[in-house]
């Protein structure tokens, strides 16, 4: 074949893809383990580890076991933890009052971790669902309405007891209106002005939370006058502009960090918030997103390591500074081994 007359492009982007060294030189996104947050599920007792079926590699841990894991994670460079308590079903009530008990499992875990792993950043979830016999993030009226202002009042109390126990960051995941301002006021009033607020700014009514609800046994219960889903407070997956409405409110209410959740199906929302705000943006790579890759890998249909790295990198590329992920430790190990 005569190739002398072929067109010869002068711009050749492939020049910068030619070797691993050159690709490393021009790589735009570097995701280091210190930007990852590892969620931990807690249970009572000591030396307890109850595996969570749909979240391979994760278990409900007693506080001593959670401390061991947090120490190991810190050594690998993952120093931030998001704490979720699996509350004893006997302590779940309609009014979720265990949420504001300063000696509850969550506060006990914060005190234990604070003391044993002082270098860790502890993040605590603010919502009523782990404590509610209804499985909702808020209080429910007799007619089945999720009560906004009454719930916010309780969430503010929750934030203060978490701060007293020693948390660094409180993280309202409930999607009630006005909660960031209420939390800030309550924390400041109690002299906890250094405790930061990471707001779930755009949390969608997603089907990808399934494995998490199994872990905490926290799905909405099937009972008369209990809404079957969280659609009256979590956002409609079809909406992106509405995330900006939420973001402007959260900034005005003095949120320190804003979160989008889930992550992969909402990369456009992460990118939009990144472009309209200068606050750090977090994304939550949720339980179902993790379980999908794990399940496909188990069937031999996907390469777990490459898919997980590609997924987390894309979330960072979209604009997330911080990523909550169940794959945090795996990523830190791959990072150490290969320098991804
Ligand atoms: C509840 C809460 C949920 C998650 C974090 N906090 C579930 C829900 O809203 O029903 C989901 C996390 C995950 O799926 O990994 N306030």
Task: Outline the secondary-structure elements.
Blueprint: H1 20-26, E1 36-42, E2 49-51, E3 59-61, H2 63-75, E4 80-85, H3 105-116, E5 121-126, E6 139-140, E7 146-147, H4 148-165, E8 169-172, H5 179-189, E9 196-203, H6 210-216, H7 241-252, E10 257-261, H8 267-276, E11 281-285, H9 287-298, H10 304-318, E12 322-325, H11 328-338
Parallel strand pairs: 1-3, 1-4, 1-12, 4-5, 5-8, 8-9, 9-10, 10-11, 11-12
Antiparallel strand pairs: 2-3, 6-7
Helix pairs in contact: 2-3, 4-5
This protein binds ligand PBG.
Report on the structure:
With 340 residues, the protein is α/β, with parallel strands linked by helices. It has one domain: TIM Barrel (Alpha-Beta Barrel). The chain contains 11 helices and 12 strands. The radius of gyration is 21 Å and the shape is globular. Ligand PBG binds at residues 125, 127, 129, 137, 173-174, 209, 212-213, 230, 286-287.
Please describe the structure with a list of short key phrases separated by commas or semicolons.
340 residues, alpha/beta, TIM Barrel, 8-stranded parallel β-barrel, two-stranded antiparallel ribbon, 11 helices, binds ligand PBG
Summarize the structure.
By secondary structure, the chain is an alpha/beta fold.
CATH topology: TIM Barrel
Total strands: 12
**Order of strands across the widest beta sheet?**
1-4-5-8-9-10-11-12
Total number of helices: 11
Q: Number of domains in the coordinates?
A: 1
